[in-house]
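Q: Structure for this?
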Amino acid sequence: METTRRRITQAAVELHGRIGPAQTTIAGIAELAGVQRHTVYRHFPTEEELFAACSSEYWGDHPWPDVMPWKEIGSPSDRLTTALTALYGYYETVEQMLTNALRDAATVPLVERSLQPFTGYLDDVAAILIDAYAPQATEPVLLKAAVHHAVEFPTWQSLIHRQGLQPEVAVTLLTRMIESTTP
Amino acid sequence: METTRRRITQAAVELHGRIGPAQTTIAGIAELAGVQRHTVYRHFPTEEELFAACSSEYWGDHPWPDVMPWKEIGSPSDRLTTALTALYGYYETVEQMLTNALRDAATVPLVERSLQPFTGYLDDVAAILIDAYAPQATEPVLLKAAVHHAVEFPTWQSLIHRQGLQPEVAVTLLTRMIESTTP
DNA sequence: ATTTCATAGAACGGAGCTGTTCAATGAAAG
DNA sequence: CTTTCATTGAACAGCTCCGTTCTATGAAAT
């Protein structure tokens, strides 16, 4: 039955967000799903398939901000502000999961693999932002580093959570950093 | 015997740096120290005492850069550059341990407690740097956030490792970000 | 009406870790 | 020389997880 499968992946996603993938056990998933451990193994013979199902499930529910509209924005500053604001709004909604997943990626190889599409997306975002500034860039290395840094989730965590900035203020600060690398 | 105790704490520190505190087991420590598990329990009845011994051992071997000289530097820019450069050099030497400890702090309460002195040190550093700029600061909130962000280990990780910047270049970039908050 | 199949429920052996206990060894201190 | 004490080595019960196996139930498909 399809509903059983979904209850399992939903339970897994729930636990990944609550305690993190590293601490999530098959036993825990089965219990939360109200299912026998055995049943989990039937649907997902390998952890790999389970992780894949979780990724689909989660990213399906939390799609990344669409980058297409940003490409239409000619002004580098506007493009940057728009993209960063959207991205930071998105981070608010996926905070728990990203916090746990990025933390556990270092210890659980499967988690790192599951994050690769997201990492690729961030690289795309960064490339689009860099492109806008590229023509006038006098320090391309610094520009690239600054944009990639701005786009990362740990940077959002630092500025928003630990430094207590409002998202718009954080965007302002990072915009200044990035634009300090262009004339 | 005192040497046994030190072999135990050294083994523990070694494992904390290699695989992280969260994955470090008493059994593993005993084995690496070439000692019976029992012996570990004798010297450190509670995990708390073991962690305390590890902290002393590690911070003793890797003392934080002295902040006193920085207070003598009148120029805010010079003070900032000097301090950040020293701090970033220090981060190179404690990278593994900080990477693991900060990651595991979220899941192992004892690790978080052990890190509090270090966190306090970073706050001191930030305060000293902010002080230098404070008189001319027109946006104190931004200034404070920027300095705290610059001083954090995750920021160093991002700029140095993931963005691939040279330390001096990273310092330059962050200096610009910070100084963009003052006239 | 019968077969098929997903699931429940229970159990197995194996692994790794925990904290504790016991007896044996050996070295240093009195 | 004798006592004290740190350490060894081995064992115990306990816990949680793993992956697998068996039987039983029940519902849906044919």
